[in-house]
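Service request form, structural biology core

Requester: graduate student, group of Dr. S.
Request type: structure prediction, single chain
Budget code: on file
Notes: please return the result as structure tokens.

Sequence provided:
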Amino acid sequence: MSRVAVAIIGAGPYGLSLSAHLATRNVRHRIFGRPMQFWSDIAEAGGERYLKSYCFGTNISTPMSGYSFADYSRPRGRETFEPCSIADFAAYGHWFQQENVPWVESIEVKLVDRRTRGFEVTLADGESFEADNVAIATGLAGFAYVPPEIASLPPAFVTHTSEIKSFAAFKGLDVAVIGAGQSALEAAALLLEAGAQPQLLVRENSILWQTRVSLKRSLWRRLRSPISGLGTGPKAWGLTRFPGAMHRVPAKWRTKFVKNHLPAEGAWWLRDRVEDKIPIHFGATVVEARESNGHVALGLHLAGDGSRRALVVDHVVAGSGYDIDLERLEFIDPKLRCEIERLERAPKLSAAFETSASGLYFIGPASAMSFGPLFRFVVGAEYTVRVVSSHLAARASKAA
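Core staff response, request fulfilled:
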């Protein structure tokens, strides 16, 4: 059976970044997954979909210069600040992969199991090999969260925003969109533009909208609210400038901060596509959902007067975010999953992004509970892969 120093599972921004850095350090590895699959699927659903982050905060990392998102976008006449098209970002990722990580294997990993020394990795085609270390970089795939009140509906009647295959498929349908964050608001706009009749169900009493940030700002404004890859303001600047600092904060404070940082809000370019165009039910919480004669009957609790209201629609779209839960990663052997210490449902990681199961690493959004909200976004890739590639290179050198 063949053996490598590192197996990388996932070929999105974090996986591609780690592979590029390991190659520069001459660490023998293999990387698996369809490049940029999560982002490509979102783009292929149709409509105008944009990143909420700044373009300069969505670079895939490589030690080589000339491969930033702006390096890809500028010569093609595309946006280099905001808003940046998700389709362009997916295309950038494919370009980056072809130029820097052409050895990606577009095949699914079926099983990762513990062995006496390292791990055994089994692929969808039946091939098995051994790896001294495994880095899991599957991003948000598989972690879509659907509230339990609607999760019991038959799959034909409920869809998470990230799992919509085609907005055009909803043409002519009445759709309830649950949520007040970017994904819910964008989905509502795209459904309307595709010919559906969406309604927004918002638990809060209002929607928070970001304001447009100008690159031409006064010195006082730049000092008071600096621009960083995570957004504007002192908190975002501090998290970006000192990416490893949150790992040193006591876990109970850090996890609370991760949950509460960056409330649900919509991007400025989305506002005109939603306000005064889509019915919005504020203070509305879904407390019941059932199929009824080929439709969905929703029971709503209205916070304003405490009353109940019934709403019948053809479909429900959940813009309810993601829940990092290790138990959803079924390709990890159950006994191996049991070895991994948790922070709530996410893996607890060392300063080198290693789990309590020696040799098993998590990078990307799954590391946010251990390292802070920066790592829910692509901007965290630069710090992550420099730390992890250095650690893995040192470990490979000792093993040689």
